[in-house]
Amino acid sequence: MAFGFTVLKKDAGTRARLGKLVTPHGEVQTPVFMPVGTQATVKTMAPEDLKALGAGGAGIILSNTYHLYLRPGHELIAKMGGLHRFMSWDRPILTDSGGYQVFSHSQLRKITEEGVKFQSHLDGSYHFLTPERATGIQEALGADIIMCFDECPPYPSTYDYLKESMEMTLRWARRCKDSKKREDQALFGIIQGGMHKDLRVESAGRTVEIGFDGYAIGGLSVGETKPLMYEATEYTAEAMPEDRPRYLMGVGTPEDLVECACLGVDMFDCVMPTRNARTGTLFTSFGKMNIKNAKFSEDSSPADPECTCYACRNFSRAYLRHLYSAGEILGMRLNTIHNLHYYLTLMDDIRKAIREDRLTSFRREFYHKREVDQ
After folding, report:
1. What's the distance, CA 218 to chain centroid?
2. Active site residue 160
């Protein structure tokens, strides 16, 4: 089945769109949140757990090229039948190119026109990643959607540096497209430019000229303020094609998902729900909850009375607090089930609101619940 994207409906009061992604491993309704399975696993979750979550389960997940290249190696994964078979996941997968991981390990890397030389954070060994290499690794992994290799500049950066970085990202994007061999994978280009509207708009236009199956907004959620992030998302999304999926990389909080869906973003990913679950923070209809808090030690109510996840149907706040305090793995697992269920249900609610032309009122009610004392 070839890759495709269709805008099914636009919200009457915002720029939000209801869409459908078609991939070789199934269809995905958008706007969508992609749980992050960095090392071929969404931490603490089995594939069947992901499918059993709210709103039909996770429709698509993300894995990471950088980490899988270092361990266990893309050649081994290809030998084992590809990433889907390796991790026993039969729904769509998106792999990022490793560009962000290179950025986040800045003390271990050196960027040149040809590519990036970096040291493994695992054993200190040296590696060289080029646009062609990143594309080839992702082709070996066999994801449904693969990403161009880009430079993710730090925040803040000078205008001159951001422009040079954008130019190199564009050259690398062309090299990724030219080196791509598999026709059963969609390739997304990445738009950079920091917090400068002129650079973002130029990056979007020139990336579209190269021509990709979808387009991503990169280089956000790297330390800038929320107003700056939303502003950059808005003018970048406006410069992106109507008939291609728009992916905002590495974002974010439930508030981010609501705001940026309203700005026309179709795809999101973030480690926030899973990482916070492991540190005892739960996302609920009324805001964040720190399950470590002593006030929950005798609380027999579920984490979120409005939630229908397995954890909330069967366990109390007191039990979840006990598990966390005792360092029990089940606590991390239940918290992760809850947080991902919340995120996927939130996206389903956003899709329903778009379908019914009431996203503006949904957004208002979403924030109203967070203002009520619990």
Report:
1. 11
2. no
